[in-house]
Amino acid sequence: MDVAEETVKKVQQFVNNRQDAEAEYAKEPLSTTTLQAYTRRLDATLQSLQEQVRRQEEELRKLRESNSLEVSNADTDPWERVSQARRAKEAYDSLLQSEDELPDAQSPLPSLLAIGETTQLIKDSKVSVRVTAEKLSVDRERLRIEDANLRDSRSIASGLRERIERIRNDNARKEAQTPSQVAREQVAQQKKKNKQFDRASSDLKISLDKFVDETLAPMLAAEDLGGPTVGDALEVSDATLRAGYTAHGKPKKPKQSAEEEDGGQQRIDQFVRRSTTNGDNDASPMNKRQAAATEMHSLLDALLESGISYVDVPRDSATCRFLVRAKVAQFHPRDARRLRLIDFGRSLGD
Fold it and tell me: How far apart are the C-alpha atoms of 293 and 284, rounded to whole Å?
């Protein structure tokens, strides 16, 4: 909507006058007498407006009480209708010629009305800005999601187009081949897949052996010694394996060496005996870890070789219990000394 230039000038003039008034007020604040006079002027303006409203209402009441204009009444005499139309015209002409009862130039009413309208406009603008900001945030989030969906859709479409093109090329190539060529190609592809499976199985076996030797063996050794169940204590040190565990499964405190160096000459047989004893103690945790790792490797190899058949286990060890808890193997229903792998392929085959 275009705004008239005159209106723009009036608004600018009002703003300038407002700024000048504020600057003047900042220089010379209004005194109590001036404020009282301003209040009296406001009261007088309000009283004048109320008086004008009352007078207009009284005139309107008198006009309604007078004879109404029944111009549209079909039963009225035509000359009477013409007379009524003339009287209405004269009344409207007198109203048009009368002067509007507006506040004088010194009245503060225009300023108050402008301030009220400006304040309301500022409030509406603030609300609109807040609503627009919230909507903008929601739209940006929606745009981000739509962009991600668009990228995914394009990737899927590109992959599908490539796959369709590859299938078409394969079908065209197979149609041009003889049955023997197709058979040789299938055999070559199957050999390639077998090599890939063998390589992946070898890498998996190496990773499994590394995990058993470095991580699982100390926990298995600790459980065999009466310590916590595998998985409850993730870090088991050599000192803990050397000291052992109590009947309640708590680690024992490491024993302190009772002999101390006194600086004097010691007998060779005592030195050799102590060195031999310390060497056996240092090797003990390593032997326990190695025994647990060897038992796990042997049991896994036996289970893999037997397939879904049961294998005999020499004793109820932490290794057997761990494989059963991990749902890798299961005991025989009537013989706990026999163990086999769980048939994972049965559910897939069904």
Answer: 14
